């Protein structure tokens, strides 16, 4: 028992102390000196947010910036990065073949308000985080009173609720259509239109069997899975076009699909899903777990501080 607790604490320590090496370049249009400034090298917390790095980044580039008011934002290969998504999730989602350091670009002018919601620095990040925490608390407890006045006992109650009840999950589903032999050959995400952003709570209890990541994925993305309890003649085909009708922002569903078979898969293999699509990759906190791993372990060890389990999924869809 003591060894199990020690392992859990060690896993949590890795999550909370996990970091990504960043190499941050100032966009060439905002360089006013020669030679241009070297990139800033920063070790960014996985559970943190990019705007919180600004106090470290701005002094590095301040001497070369053009005059004007700062409207800071980040991009990766031309794609503006959504500041309210944890840094580790952005990395897992956008780098199918992880690159280290992660080369991203910072802008101090020309905020893309048509793509990103406004960010006024640390206060915006703080309130976004608190709102996520309220949302998670509402999913877990039916109200968010315990977040409104976060005493130590309230935090403990929220934690026990996560361990014993419904789990708030945020899915980032990246759809691809091309065939590839290696992740390095895969084209980069160039638009947020390719990412479905889905919130769905999930019940982790299941009588008589271990509730696995495979079970959870069937519950969270039932539109991609065939019901194994049915005969081939009764299988309902689900086209990805139908699945894409789900809004790309907040979605809530209580539907849980029961798994009638015991299946074990390697994480690089496709799941048993509808013939119209296949899941190629699942990544959580930089880890690519096997589908037979107990879902409770993921919940106990890989939650973000906002009490959501952030899951990045790459789905191959027919051309």
How is the secondary structure organized here?
Layout: H1 2-17, E1 19-26, E2 40-45, H2 54-61, E3 73-76, E4 79-80, H3 87-94, E5 102-107, H4 122-141, H5 145-148, H6 152-164, E6 166-176, E7 195-203, H7 213-220, H8 240-243, E8 278-283, H9 295-302, E9 309-316
Parallel strand pairs: 1-5, 6-9
Antiparallel strand pairs: 1-2, 3-4, 3-5, 6-7, 8-9
What are the main properties of this structure?
9 helices, Atg5, autophagy, Autophagy protein 5, Ubiquitin-like (UB roll), 9 strands, alpha+beta
Sum this structure up briefly.
28% of the residues lie in helices and 19% in strands. The protein contains 9 helices and 9 strands.
Molecular structure report:
This protein has 9 helices and 9 strands. With 319 residues, it is α+β, with helices and mostly antiparallel strands. It has 3 domains: 107 residues, Ubiquitin-like (UB roll) (Roll); 36 residues, no CATH class; 110 residues, Ubiquitin-like (UB roll) (Roll), CATH 3.10.20. The longest helix is centred in the middle third of the chain and has 20 residues. It is globular and about 65 Å long. The chain starts with a helix and ends with a strand. About 17% of the residues have low confidence.
């Amino acid at each position: 028992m003591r060894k199990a607790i020690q392992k859990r604490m060690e896993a949590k320590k890795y999550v909370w102390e996990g970091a990504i090496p960043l190499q941050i370049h100032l966009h060439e249009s905002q360089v006013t000196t020669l030679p241009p400034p070297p990139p800033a090298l920063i070790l960014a917390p996985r559970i943190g947010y990019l705007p919180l790095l600004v106090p470290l980044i701005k002094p590095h580039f301040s001497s070369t910036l053009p005059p004007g008011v700062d409207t800071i934002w980040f991009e990766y290969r031309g794609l503006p990065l959504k500041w309210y998504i944890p840094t580790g999730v952005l990395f897992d989602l956008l780098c199918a073949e992880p690159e280290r350091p992660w080369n991203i670009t910072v802008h101090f002018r020309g905020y893309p308000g048509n793509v990103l919601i406004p960010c006024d620095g640390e206060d915006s990040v703080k309130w976004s985080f608190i709102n996520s925490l309220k949302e998670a608390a509402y999913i877990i407890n039916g109200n968010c009173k315990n977040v409104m006045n976060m005493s130590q006992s309230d935090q403990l109650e929220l934690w026990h609720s996560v361990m014993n009840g419904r789990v708030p999950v945020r899915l980032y589903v990246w759809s691809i259509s091309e065939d590839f032999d290696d992740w390095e050959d895969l084209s980069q995400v160039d638009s947020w239109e390719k990412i479905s952003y889905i919130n769905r709570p999930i019940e982790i209890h299941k009588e008589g069997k271990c509730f696995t990541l495979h079970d959870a994925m069937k519950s969270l993305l039932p539109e991609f899975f065939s019901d194994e309890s049915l005969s081939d003649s009764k299988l309902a085909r689900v086209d990805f076009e139908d699945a894409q009708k789900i809004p790309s922002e907040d979605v809530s569903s209580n539907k849980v699909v029961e798994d009638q078979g015991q299946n074990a898969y390697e994480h690089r293999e496709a799941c048993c899903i509808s013939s119209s699509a296949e899941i190629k990759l699942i990544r959580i906190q930089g880890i690519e777990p096997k589908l037979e791993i107990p879902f409770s372990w993921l919940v106990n060890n890989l939650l973000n501080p906002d009490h959501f389990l952030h899951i990045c999924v790459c789905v191959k869809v027919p051309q």
